[in-house]
Specification:
Layout lengths: L1 E4 L12 E4 L7 H16 L4 E7 L2 H5 L11 H10 L4 E6 L2 H4 L3 H12 L4 E5 L12 H11 L2 E5 L3 E2 L2 E2 L2 H9 L3 H8 L3 E8 L4 H4 L5 E4 L9 E9 L2 E11 L10 E6 L10 E11 L7 H22 L1
Parallel strand pairs: 1-4, 2-3, 2-5, 3-4, 5-6
Antiparallel strand pairs: 7-8, 9-10, 9-14, 10-13, 11-12, 11-14, 12-13
Length: 310
């Protein structure tokens, strides 16, 4: 998959595409339905399949103090889009200038000018432009004289309610990983590179691989049964903590993973951590001894749960 930032011509990119627009945070089953419709049209008409997304998320720029937890990093999103068969990914920097474009300016400069889009695929009740003043009706009207048609994909519903990033965030925040799995069609995953830490876990008998989250607010928190892939591991069972480590005076959000039955080096390796079940909330312990006893119990519970699930 080709990736370009901004609207300038980029090597290998082909104008005249079928394009889906959105933040696509989490790439849940609603997003997957949009991508499936996009691919169907692109293949039928032999057009490049493109996605147009934004970085940062518009709400992170417009209301940083109220921005929702980001479900995935751009790198992870790009990898999943490539796996879904997307040919081209355009990443627009969401800034003051872009936030002031109205719907007409957006379609003129982006869809017609930069992409020469032939088909635009969006989700139900799609909004765009300054203060989301543009809607699907405007997009269709613009398309009539800018050379593209519009496909509005109905909401993908589970349990009588639409699948959305908001619903997914709520499930993850509540520790309901079974519902999150249903909304995603897969386990919820956090990926990252293992960094060098204080090695306190090794001293306590539980060597951990530490991953920096690069998120202002993580979508999950607490202690979890997980499966780990990467660095020679393939869905290896383990127990993980997402938190700030208050017992030892930590402040930065980290993902710490203790991989069962493995003691090899993982520093610098990129790991995929799949979250299977939530065990408990993070909490502050009176001393290292009581914390170690709880880690031992967490590991026991995680082993038992993962063994039962197979």
């Amino acid at each position: 998959m080709l990736i370009a930032r901004g609207l300038a011509p980029a090597k290998g990119f082909t104008r005249g595409c079928a394009v889906a627009i959105g933040s696509f945070d989490g790439l849940h089953r609603g997003h997957q339905a949009i991508l499936a419709r996009l691919a169907e049209y692109g293949h039928e008409h032999e057009l490049p399949i493109a996605v147009l997304t934004f970085e940062p998320h518009p709400r992170e720029y417009l209301r940083p103090d109220e921005a929702p937890a980001r479900l995935m990093r751009l790198r992870d999103k790009a990898e999943m889009l490539a796996a879904a068969g997307v040919d081209q990914l355009r990443v627009l920097r969401f800034n003051a200038a872009l936030s002031r474009w109205d719907g007409t300016a957006f379609t003129s400069r982006v869809l017609e000018g930069a992409l020469a889009a032939r088909r635009v695929v969006v989700g139900e009740r799609f909004g765009f432009g300054y203060e989301r003043s543009g809607d699907v009706a405007l997009l269709r009207a613009e398309g009539l004289h800018r050379g593209f048609t519009v496909d509005e994909v109905p909401a993908f519903c589970i349990g009588g309610a639409p699948v959305s990033s908001t619903r997914l965030r709520a499930a993850l925040a509540a520790g309901n990983l079974d519902e999150a799995r249903l909304l995603l069609g897969r386990d919820y995953r956090i990926s990252g590179r293992v960094i060098d830490g204080r090695r306190l876990g090794r001293q306590l008998g539980f060597p951990t691989a530490n991953l920096r989250l690069h998120r202002r607010v993580p979508p999950v928190a607490g202690v979890f049964a997980v499966r780990v892939t990467g660095g020679g591991l393939e869905r290896q069972p383990g127990v993980a903590s997402v938190g700030t480590r208050p017992t030892v005076g930590g402040r930065e959000w980290l993902l710490e993973v203790f991989v069962f039955d493995f003691d090899g080096p993982l520093y610098g390796e990129r790991l995929d951590v799949d979250f299977i079940a939530r065990l408990r909330e993070e909490r502050r312990f009176a001393d290292l001894e009581s914390m170690t006893a709880q880690i031992r119990e967490d590991a026991r519970q995680a082993r038992e749960l993962l063994f039962a699930r197979g």
